[in-house]
Amino acid sequence: MHVPDGFLDAPTSIATGVVAVAGVAVALRGARKELDDRTAPLAGLVATFVFAAQMINFPVAGGTSGHLLGGVLAAVLAGPCTAVLCISVVLLVQSLLMADGGVTALGTNITLMGLVGVAVGWLVFKALITVLPRTKASVPPAAAVAALVSVPVAALAFTALFAIGGTAPVETGKVLTAMVGWHVVIGLGEAVITFLVVGAVVASRPDLVHGARHLHSADDLEIRKAAA
Amino acid sequence: MMKSRRFFAVFLLVSLLVAGVGSYYASSHPDGLEYVAGKTGFGDSAKDSATADSPFADYGVKGIDNARLSGGLAGVVGCVVVLVLAGGLFLVVRRRSDDEA
C-alpha cells in the first residue's frame, strides 16, 4: 500500500507529514516504556523482518497482489509505540533506498501504515485479548484478527485522504469500494502471516512478547531473565 | 526455552532468507493500491520518486543483471540498513537495566 508521489496534492502531503512527525514523536516517548535490555534487540529484528516480509508480494485474485503491512505483527511482538517506530524506519529505508513509496508521500505512508494500521490493530488486539481466555494460545488468533482489520482500515484512511487531496478527478465512491474490497482480501494474507510469526515467537519466547505481558507475573520475568 | 542469542540469530536468519532468497518468488502483480489506482483511473497521477535513481531502486542492485542475485542482494542490504537504524534507535531509547523503571 505504498503511496507514490503524485497521488495526493501538496497540502495533503504536508498535513500527513505533520501528523507523521507528531505520531513518531509520541511513539518515541512511549517506546521507552516498552523497551528494555531484553526486548530492544527483538524490536530491531522485528523491523528487519517487516522489511523482508514486505518484499514478498503474495498473489491475490484477479491479477492483484498484496504484502504484509506488519503494524499489528510489530505491535503485538514489540509494543504499539515501538511498532510505529519499526514501520517508520522500514518506510524510510524503502522510500530513500529502494524508491518504494514516494519521498513527499513518506508522511502519508507513515500515517497510513504506521499510525492508523498500528493504532487500529492494537485496539482490536487489546479488546480481543481481554475477552479471550488468559492463555498464551489466545495471543496469535487475537493478533491475526487485529491484522485482518488493520489492512482495510488503512485502505479506508487512504480513501479519505484521496477524497480530500487526490490529484486525479476520480469519484471517491469508486475508490472506496475497490480499496476496501481488495484490502479485505489482502488482510487475510496479513492475518495468516501475523498468526504464524506471532505464534512462532509466542511458542519459543513468550517472555519477550509485548502482547503476552499480561500473562506473566513479575516473578516469572525474574526467573526467565536469570535463565536467559 | 530457547536461549536469547540463538532465538535472535534464528529471527535474523529468517529475515535474511526471506529478503535474500524468498523475495525472488514474490508475485509481480501490482499491489492492491496500484491495482485500484489503475482500475479506477488515478494510476497515471503517480510521479517518479526523487530516489528513482538510487542504486537499489525497485529492490535491485544497479549493474547486476542476474535478477536473483540483484534482488537478493538489495534485500539483504535493506535488511542490514533497517537493522542498524531500528536496532540502534531502540538501544538508545530503551530503559537501561540500571535505570529506575
Explain the overall architecture:
The complex is a heterodimer of chains A (228) and B (101). Chain A is mainly alpha-helical and 228 residues long. Chain A has one domain: Arp2/3 complex 21 kDa subunit ARPC3, CATH 1.10.1760. Helix content of chain A is 71%, strand content 3%. In chain A, strands 1-2 form a two-stranded antiparallel ribbon. The longest helix of chain A is centred in the C-terminal third of the chain and has 33 residues. Chain B is mainly alpha-helical and 101 residues long. Chain B has a domain of 54 residues. In chain B, 52% of the residues lie in helices and 0% in strands. Chain B has three helices and no strands. The longest helix of chain B is centred in the last third of the chain and has 27 residues. In chain B, 32% of the residues are buried. The interface between A and B is large, with 80 and 66 residues.
Key phrases:
A: 228 residues; mainly alpha; Arp2/3 complex 21 kDa subunit ARPC3; B: 101 residues; 3 helices; extended
Question: What does this entry show, briefly?
Answer:
Chain A has 228 residues and is mainly α.
